[in-house]
Amino acid sequence: MKKKFTLEIASPCSENFDKMIPNSKGSFCNSCAKNVIDLSSKSNSEVAKFIAENKGKNICARIKSTQLQEEFAYNETSKINNFKYAAIAASVLLASNVSAQEKEPIQTEITSPKLNNHIVGKIAFKQPVEEEVSIIVKGKILDSKTNKPLNNKTYPNLMLTINDSPTPFKVNAKTGEFAIPLKVLKNSDNLYLSIVSGDYYLSKTIPFDIKSVKGNVLKQDIIIETEELTKVMIMGGLGINYIDKKASKEI
Hints:
By secondary structure, the protein is mainly β. It folds into two domains: 2-75 and 235-247, no CATH class; 132-231, Sandwich (Immunoglobulin-like). Helices cover 14% and strands 35% of the residues. The chain has two helices and 16 strands. The chain has a nine-stranded mixed sheet, with no helix packed on it. Strands 7, 10, 13 and 14 form a four-stranded mixed sheet that branches. The chain is globular, with a radius of gyration of 28 Å. The protein starts with a strand and ends in an 8-residue tail after the last strand.
């Protein structure tokens, strides 16, 4: 059975997420002595899986404001239904055994055409190898309206991640310049970007062509509209609103 729910924010937290101490479970908040889980970059299914695995727990999380408008769903298995199914299956199996003992077996004769034998030689199959190359992506993050770097006061501590690089790279606040080394597949068509600045977040995809790489360097400016940046909030206790299955068309 599918369980549906939405997220709500009862009391937004004013703590600065960037100043929290990262660890394997999230980022540790000294103010409330709890781990804050960053769900802002997770997909809908990943958030649903996390909520299902931590059902009933008091969760502090960092989310995007747009995630408050989404509906999440996960499959919940009913133990009672499983028990009934097991009991019915056992009854059917038992009835089948009794029936088999009471009836005489029916003898049947099966005929099939004789297959011709063919001698087949070895088949050679060469697995295609995806070639990976090391490049450096250089460029600037610019505001589409002004064609200048983003306002440092509004968007401080600008960080950029490309293709899930292990650590985000700091963007020059004055010039908007960045230089990120990474490995890409030669046949890749896109680069995946994540831009974070304080409480703002943006993920987008830009086209990529290996032919544009000259001397292992790809020159690529990133032009963004500030309206694309999504406000991210830390929730002081994650609120989960489960949707009544009677009100839902899908069960």
